[in-house]
UniProtKB/TrEMBL annotation:
<feature type="region of interest" description="Disordered">
    <location>
        <begin position="1"/>
        <end position="26"/>
    </location>
</feature>
<feature type="compositionally biased region" description="Low complexity">
    <location>
        <begin position="8"/>
        <end position="21"/>
    </location>
</feature>
<dbReference type="InterPro" id="IPR006311">
    <property type="entry name" value="TAT_signal"/>
</dbReference>
<dbReference type="Pfam" id="PF07394">
    <property type="entry name" value="DUF1501"/>
</dbReference>
<protein>
    <submittedName>
        <fullName>DUF1501 domain-containing protein</fullName>
    </submittedName>
</protein>
<dbReference type="InterPro" id="IPR010869">
    <property type="entry name" value="DUF1501"/>
</dbReference>
């Protein structure tokens, strides 16, 4: 049997059982919640909550949307390693950008989707259609309210989104807890479970669409003797173990229900990358309509300290092209379902303004967030531009707290209270979502 894992070294919750404590018959790929969890939490976690699908280095996680918007889906794409937002969405209208990057700056005449200040990296042309359709926007100078240049610390702070709290609960897990149990698969992860999904609402993990299985069973249906007998065993009375019984029964149901994803095929051409394969699974899951509603996809590595490359080849070109092509293929593949899906990108921090001696960029602060899909006020750039300095330690200052962007998406696409999802935080208007 397998156990749930954490991406980039984030430890699991204390008290969660290890491999030797997994009951016989628990579906592979399903994370068994801690036994101290409430009966409701156990049922939610085993039945709906964190199914994880592993595709290469990408991770996809889902959390729930409240009943008023239960058919909507939020996809959070995390660019692990600290992406250089100044290369992805170039502030060509700020001369300090070119002064600080004499060897790595992207020429203004090569940029796409330009206005007087910003333009997309030329390798991101796959996003042009979404931009022209008003379904893609960018929020620049976004990030943590105080600079944090440690990958793991900043990642934890971003995904916890509750500064000062001693509770180890991610913002997606809090979102998961705002809704009543309506689907066994509202929380879904592909690969290791990210910190954003950690908390009292447990999750499930699988390796791929074929990764949810019961040892000894050839199929997850009552037609298979092994699976059928387990369903019957956990359906009956288990003295003193009601929560375990209900959790096990719900987990078996979730594993069975997820098989519908196998029957959905892709119609778009996705990049043959971990990100492309992961977003293909997200699209299949959305269109399978198994009750999944919030996803996260991890993409890396964006830690470009050296050799970022030129504007036509190299590390940044490859990553940016893959990101753009994967997102474009995702929305194409969704078809009519695209009208209920919103995608947002985030990274733990940006990079310094000035290039270093190795033609790369050291850890910085502010960054760009992309928002695409349903409800987006697209075809434009949002946020307040602070201007750039050119010193060796100069940062892109943050003028938009990243939680304001996420909270605006949550408020526009769900019935959840943003005060619950982001405790103690008062969001400011960003204007990237319609009606907000």
């Amino acid at each position: 049997m397998t156990t749930d894992t954490q991406h980039l070294g984030s430890p699991d919750l204390p008290g969660s059982p290890g491999p030797d404590s997994r009951p016989c018959g628990y579906p592979e790929g399903v994370a068994l919640p801690g036994l101290a969890t409430s009966r409701r939490g156990l049922l939610r976690g085993a039945a709906l909550g964190g199914l994880s699908l592993s595709v290469g280095g990408a991770v996809v996680s889902q959390a729930p949307i409240a009943a008023a918007a239960e058919t909507s889906a939020i996809v959070v794409v995390s660019l692990r390693g600290g992406s250089d937002g100044l290369s992805m969405v170039v502030p060509h209208g700020d001369q300090a950008y070119y002064d600080a990057r004499p060897n790595t700056g992207v020429a203004a005449d090569r940029l796409l989707m330009k206005d007087a200040m910003f333009g997309f990296h030329p390798s991101m042309s796959a996003l042009q259609g979404l931009w022209d359709a008003g379904s893609l926007a960018a929020v620049h100078a976004a990030g943590l309210p105080v600079a944090n240049r440690s990958h793991f610390s900043a990642m934890e702070e971003i995904e916890d989104a509750d500064p000062g709290s001693a509770a180890r609960v991610g913002w997606l897990n809090r979102l998961l807890g705002t809704d009543a149990l309506t689907s066994p698969l509202q929380g879904l992860s592909v690969g290791g479970r990210p910190l954003a999904m950690v908390g009292p609402e447990p999750t499930m993990t699988v390796g791929d669409v074929n990764g949810v299985k019961v040892s000894g069973a050839s199929s997850l249906s009552n037609s298979d003797p092994r699976f059928g007998s387990l369903r019957q065993a956990w359906k009956g009375s288990v003295p003193g173990r009601a929560a375990m019984r209900d959790g096990m029964s719900a987990a078996l149901t979730a594993a069975s229900d997820f098989q519908a994803v196998k029957d959905v095929s892709t119609t778009a051409t996705f990049p043959n990358s971990s990100l492309g394969r992961a977003l293909a699974i997200v699209s299949r899951t959305v269109r399978a309509d198994v009750g999944s509603s919030v996803f996260t996809v991890d993409s890396g590595n964006w830690d470009m300290h050296t050799d970022i490359g030129s504007s036509s080849s190299g590390w940044m070109v490859n990553n940016a092209r893959d990101l753009a092509a994967s997102i474009a293929a995702f929305f194409t593949d969704l078809g009519d379902a695209a009208s209920r899906v919103t995608l947002v990108t985030i990274s733990e921090f940006g990079r310094r303004v000035a290039e270093n001696a190795n033609r790369g960029f050291d850890h910085g602060w502010g960054n760009v967030m992309l928002v695409a899909g349903a409800g987006v006020r697209g075809g434009q750039y949002h946020g307040s531009w602070p201007g750039l300095a050119t010193g060796v330690n100069a940062d892109l200052s943050v003028t938009t707290d990243y939680r304001s962007v996420l909270a605006e998406v949550v408020a526009a696409r769900t019935a959840a209270s943003t005060a619950t999802v982001f405790p103690g935080f008062r969001r400011e208007s960003v204007g990237v979502m319609t009606g907000q």
